[in-house]
Amino acid sequence: MVEPASAAAIVVAHGFWRFTDIFGRYITHNIGVYGFTETGKSTLDRQLMTEGHVRPLGEYDRTHHKKKWLSKHHRMPLRAVRRVRSDGMSKTVVSRDIGGHQEYFPMWLRDMYSRRIETLIILLDHRHLTNTDDTSNQLAFGYIVEHLSNGKRPKGLGFWKRFRARKWRPKRIIVLANKADLWLDEEGYAQWERGLIFEHPIFLPFREHLYRLQELGVPTRVDAISASVGWNVEDAIMKGMSDL
Ligand SMILES: Nc1nc2c(ncn2[C@@H]2O[C@H](COP(=O)(O)OP(=O)(O)OP(=O)(O)O)[C@@H](O)[C@H]2O)c(=O)[nH]1
Ligand SMILES: [Mg+2]
């Protein structure tokens, strides 16, 4: 038999949980997903839009942006609303799918500062494991860390956005190593299950940068996902957004 008082407490707690869940769905969170080209940003975006297996994206599907007329800046893609669901909770996130070629790196900064994103997601893949000479993931990661540490505001924000962004920093950073279906073996999976994925060699070249983020006081979480298969995608984002 449940005591009436505790039963009431359970009903209240349950009601509160429903309320926070429904409430949470209508609050939008600004997130920014950045990473070198072909790490899977557009695939991740599609995974959040339509859960399930995402069609492999070819060379013609790479994200590109046209230059604005008479300007040196590229035209920003539209913002898109996506839903993240995990463990019965759901959050509404707003993001922009920006390309990962080096010419678009400054657009990442313009996007993160102008929307003052709360959650910064850096997407990596396993290319440095298969070819140690390929340091493009490190280049993209280093670019973001460098700019967050020197705090220099990007050009082309406009006066008002620049002013509003003067004290901005992301609340949290989630580093996601994508394409786990290609690099996470049984041993790595066991490591992931024990919550020790940070120890995996895929994160080794980023240790210095991760420590720098720690020194900046921005909580950072690393995880493994597979955006095309839909493995651990929403759980990793949700965990990153709730723990930190
Ligand atoms: N095996 C596997 N392939 C993936 C995964 N995610 C993305 N890919 C593939 O990786 C390639 C690049 O994916 P995109 O989503 O186009 O990459 P992107 O980061 O948007 O690239 P840019 O638009 O140039 O910045 C495509 O061929 C995808 O099908 C994954 O989880 N597993
Ligand atoms: Mg893309």
Q: Which secondary structure elements does this structure contain, and how are they paired or packed?
A:
Blueprint: H1 4-26, E1 28-34, H2 41-49, E2 80-86, E3 89-95, H3 105-114, E4 119-124, H4 127-130, H5 136-150, H6 159-164, E5 172-177, H7 180-183, H8 186-193, H9 207-216, E6 220-224, H10 233-243
Parallel strand pairs: 1-3, 1-4, 4-5, 5-6
Antiparallel strand pairs: 2-3
Helix pairs in contact: 5-9
The chain binds guanosine-5'-triphosphate and magnesium ion.
Overview of this protein structure:
This protein has 244 residues and is of the alpha/beta class. It has one domain: Rossmann fold, CATH 3.40.50. Helix content is 41%, strand content 16%. It is built from 10 helices and 6 strands. The protein has a 6-stranded mixed sheet with strand order 2-3-1-4-5-6, sandwiched between helices. The mean pLDDT is 89. Guanosine-5'-triphosphate is lined by residues 35, 37-43, 56-57, 61-63, 99-100, 178-179, 181-182, 226-229.
Which ranges are low-confidence, i.e. pLDDT below 50, for 5 or more consecutive residues?
Answer: none
CATH superfamily: P-loop containing nucleotide triphosphate hydrolases
CATH topology, by name, is Rossmann fold
Return the string of H and E elements.
Answer: HEHEEHEHHHEHHHEH
Q: What distance separates the N and C termini?
A: 38 Å
| Fraction in beta strands | 15-25%
Q: What does the main sheet amount to?
A: 6 strands, mixed
The value of Rg in angstroms is: 19 Å
- The mean pLDDT is 89
In the CATH hierarchy, what is the class?
Alpha Beta
Bound heterogens, unique: guanosine-5'-triphosphate, magnesium ion
Globular, elongated, flat, extended or rod-shaped: what is the shape? Answer: globular
Return the domain count: 1
Q: Numbering strands along the chain, what is their spatial order in the largest sheet? A: 2-3-1-4-5-6
